[in-house]
Amino acid sequence: MNNIVFVSFENGGGGHRFARTISALPNMYWYSHTDNGINPWNINTKNTTIRQRSVAPAHFDRIVPDGKLPPTWDYVKDFFPFPEYYYSVFKKEFTRLAPSTDKSFVYCTHSKPNELLRWFPECKVINLIHDVDSLVERYMQTTAKFPGWLRMANLVPEDNPHLIFLQCLRESKKDFTFADIWSQRTHGTLYKDDYYSEYKDSITTTFTHRMKERVNTDHQLVLNVKDKNWKEIKQFLK
């Protein structure tokens, strides 16, 4: 499996906007749909049903003619604690759903490059590097407000422990967010504004450690991107 290009970034790192840009290249597949935009540069949210786009308009889903391509493990790790099992499912689902094309599929992911290369040793990875402070600020304005409900009925059985946890949260607050999930795990309650500083400090600590690892990534299939050199990026994606 070598027809995936991963855009690897931290939450709030603008990865979907970057991915839309490279999806305009002739050798990249675009998930053309009214929910995403018929073209990658169409980011108007008037006709979308994707909830995340109300907060981050550049967001998109991996919609293909026969459904939706499976996400990387970072997106579903709370449902599937073991990546070994999940990626066996991923590869079957990807093979079943991916349309026949000579183009590469652009995947947005929060998995780090070394994690991706373990499971996809022939795929290219664009590793987005950011200043942690500005990244955290954007996270608090976007990802923290993302809808927390995730069902994935085609992959997750009804008795999954994390799904039951989400269902309980949904009973307390129908439109609960990522911040509510953090708060429930940390304080046993829904998110309150009083928790803002603690939540922000927690995200800062996490991103600081992860960004150090990103900065030190060195692999021939990984392009580290801080200041976007589009000529270099285009050459890497040939």
Distance between the termini: 17 Å
- SS field, number of helical segments: 9
Mean pLDDT: 95
What is the β-strand count?
A: 7
The level of helicity is 25-40%
Structural class, from helix and strand content?
Answer: alpha/beta
What are the secondary-structure elements, in order, as H or E? EHEEEHHEHEHHHHEH
β-strand amount? 5-15%
**What topology, given as strand order, has the largest sheet?**
2-5-1-6-7
Kindly give the count of domains. 1
General form: globular
- Rounded to the nearest angstrom, the radius of gyration is 18 Å
Major beta-sheet overview: 5 strands, parallel
Low-confidence stretches: none
Molecular structure report:
By secondary structure, the protein is of the alpha/beta class. It has one domain. The chain is 39% helix and 11% strand. The chain contains nine helices and seven strands. The protein has a five-stranded parallel β-sheet with strand order 2-5-1-6-7, with helices on both faces. Helix 5 packs across helix 8. The chain starts with a strand and ends with a helix. 29% of the residues are buried.
